[in-house]
Amino acid sequence: MFRGITFVPPDTKIDFVSQRAISWFVSAFLTVVPLVLVATVGLNMGIDFQGGTLIEVQTKENPAKLADIRGKISGLGLGEVQIQEFGAPDEVLIRIASQPTEEEQQASIAKVKEALGDSVTYRRTEIVGPTISSELIAGGTLAVVVAMIGILIYVWFRFEWQFAVAAIASLVHDVTATIGLYALLQLEFNVSSIAAILTIIGYSLNDKVVIFDRIRENLRKYKRMPLVELLDRSINEMLSRAILTHVTTLLAMLPFLFFGGEAIYGFAVAMCFGIVVGAYSSIFVASPMQLILGVQREAFSGSTSSAKGKTEKGDAEAAAGA
To answer: Residue 199's closest CA among 274, 138, 115, 141?
Structure first.
């Protein structure tokens, strides 16, 4: 009978937790370095958070002559102006710094259109005032914080507080690493970036809960197995599922990364990176933290006779494996 392709042999025994000295160093690097990058290099704040005017145009020349466009706009006295190719070679994105008043904001658009004349076709114009941008920053930050608090409560009630703390710590690791990627590559950080971070949090949490559930089952099943061996066993048992899930999701995101265009490029990059770093933190951060937090087997002790039978069987298997 055909049973499908086995990507990970069922008897796989990789010492993930036993290599925690190396993984702690890598995890510290992925947490601290992004914070340094944000503090020194900074984030490339998009129009959503910075405020100002965004004008997308299509030139009649292909490729667009950015130097000519920059020369026409730079002398208008509009403050900071950013001009970059957007998607196709003949598409240009113009960002104008936020103006003091709404009237001046509208006047800046009129000046740009007058300077460029009929040499371009205007595809979209967006205006975000400083008040709206500050509200978006506060709302985005609040959304991430509320998501973290909700996750903490959910995991605490479903498992134990040790699992909840481990989940939050590993998710903070994922979020910090993703924000660091934005700072390193100077990707535009906007509302879509917040959506990407929240999506990564939810996706990564699902992976961690699956492994936590197997750890809980094995804590009930193997009463005498050393905790390091038990954690490694739990991860290895879920390794095939994790690889299939992550690879499938990554393959689904790759078309957005390569063919989605400039508008969702930052979102796609963050998602692909988040899938990888989320898988890493589930194995090398969330699970080994149970050793530091001191998870107690007694909290998962079964009281039924069936649970007792499974425990005795698990002990026998553990003794046989030893």
So the answer is: 274
